[in-house]
Amino acid sequence: MLPLLNIHWNPDPELFNLFGISIRYYGLLWVIGLAFAYFIVQKEYRDRRIGDDKFEPLFFYCFFGILIGARLGHCLFYQPDYYLHHFWEMILPVKFLPDGGWKFTGYEGLASHGGTLGLIIALWLYCRKTKMHYMDVLDMIAVATPITACCIRLANLMNSEIIGRPTDVPWAFVFERVDMVPRHPAQFYEALAYFVFFLGMVWLYKRGQKQAPATPRTDFSKGAKADAQVTPLYHRGFFFGLCLTEIFVFRFFIEFLKENQVDFEDGMTLNMGQWLSVPFVLIGLYFMFFYGRQKKA
């Protein structure tokens, strides 16, 4: 039998303090994840010979779409009773105190399902503005999404949040800020899985690039036909569907190793994260196997 390692985990969430401004691992890892996505998608745009004038506004739409969606998703899916009576705390990164004052807390609670939905809506608005084909943009974003998700879960690990259930596995973490019980490091499991998904996405993308015609077409406007893609091995929507399917299938099953995030989940057969994952998996399977298949290049 392997000896119990019981990794004691209690990092200071604050990396350093600069002139009274707290720089935390959580925010830093979010920025790193978005930076990775920025450079990966920029490379995809250049591979497809799409001008920088269309790429430059993309980060703005993605950043605010993910942030707003993730915040509203947490507030409305997980704590609606509280936030519907504390509306401004849902919008502002502060907590209002009983004495009439307020305290800066940052956004305490971001939901990945809400962030995904917010991103999808933001990209629709972006495509309306730039006249890009919606599915081409979703496919490019999908290649980079898993590495950003990996960084977000590492951020949760540094915050000792979204913890796993008690376990006796030899690599169990003791989250000292929560209790002294050995638990599954569920955040690390997710981060590792998303990193593997990212490597797979990049491999598939490069494989498609190698099969691309010598002189790729560059018409990626909204009205362009599906056979104008630069990766003819995969139909439009394939990468988007694969990203949704692999992430949310894994999310569904990893929830069995996690503690419920809110009390009302305790009486549920499946928790909120699992119920919210199901429609994303179904949408992902549709785009992988049915959408545009008849128009595959």
UniProtKB/TrEMBL annotation:
GO molecular function, one term: phosphatidylglycerol-prolipoprotein diacylglyceryl transferase activity
Residues engaged in binding a 1,2-diacyl-sn-glycero-3-phospho-(1'-sn-glycerol): R153
Presence of keyword Transmembrane: yes
GO CC term (a single one): plasma membrane
Pfam families, per the entry: LGT (PF01790)
Subcellular location: Cell membrane
Family: Belongs to the Lgt family.
HAMAP family to which the protein is assigned, alphabetical: Lgt (MF_01147)
Protein name: Phosphatidylglycerol--prolipoprotein diacylglyceryl transferase
Organism: Caecibacteroides pullorum
Gene for this chain: lgt
